[in-house]
Amino acid sequence: MSAGDKIKAAADKLTGQVKETVGKVTDNDKLVAEGKADQAKGTVKGKVEDVKDVFKK
Question: How far apart are the C-alpha atoms of 7 and 30, rounded to whole Å?
């Protein structure tokens, strides 16, 4: 997994966590949902890169 891809995946997760927290504090269900989606996207990106690493070996 390249460092850039790791950073992008972590950034998606962090952005999602922030959005979800802000959404909960402001009682904004749409923002909570966007946050959860961003976290899921980051997780999937990370898993895809892990699979790529397995095949590179």
Answer: 25
CA distance readout (Å), 17 to 6, 12, 35, 46: 17, 9, 6, 16
pLDDT by 10s per residue, the chain, length 57: 577 888 899 999 999 999 999 999 999 999 999 999 999 999 999 888 888 878 876
Give the DSSP per-residue string, 19-54: HHHHHHHTT-HHHHHHHHHHHHHHHHHHHHHHHHHH
pTM for the complete prediction?
Answer: 0.83
